[in-house]
Design goal:
Layout: H1 2-5, H2 10-25, H3 29-43, H4 52-67, H5 71-89, H6 94-109
Helix pairs in contact: 2-3, 2-4, 3-4, 4-5, 5-6
Length: about 110
């Protein structure tokens, strides 16, 4: 896909996210994290910095960090994801509500 649409396209970032999701499902967290990081490299461009796909990327990274016991990194990524998804989806969206509850739970436990 990278050759067709360019290495910095949204479609390529979405592909990395999908691969990250697959590795997460397989509990291959390091491979998943690598793919989310590749997606985030693309999405940090000013064109995509607040795009919902970046929110999803940061969410995936945060969930992996949480599974790895890296609470500070998890919270950092989950808060960034929440801000992006809140702006794009609104406060009533189920994913935004769920993410907010997850962040609050982590903050209580820390």
């Amino acid at each position: 896909r990278a050759k067709q649409q360019g290495k910095k396209s949204l479609a390529v970032a979405m592909s990395y996210n999908s691969i990250g999701d697959i590795f997460t499902d397989q509990k291959s967290y390091e491979k998943a994290l690598k793919n989310y990081e590749l997606a985030d490299e693309i999405l940090r461009d000013e064109t995509y910095i607040d795009h919902p796909t970046r929110g999803r990327t940061l969410l995936g990274m945060g969930e992996i960090y949480l599974k790895q016991g890296k609470t500070k990194d998890a919270l950092n990524n989950l808060k960034k994801a929440h801000k992006i998804l809140l702006n794009s989806h609104g406060k009533e969206h189920p994913d935004v509500i769920s993410l907010k509850k997850t962040i609050e739970k982590i903050e209580v436990e820390v």
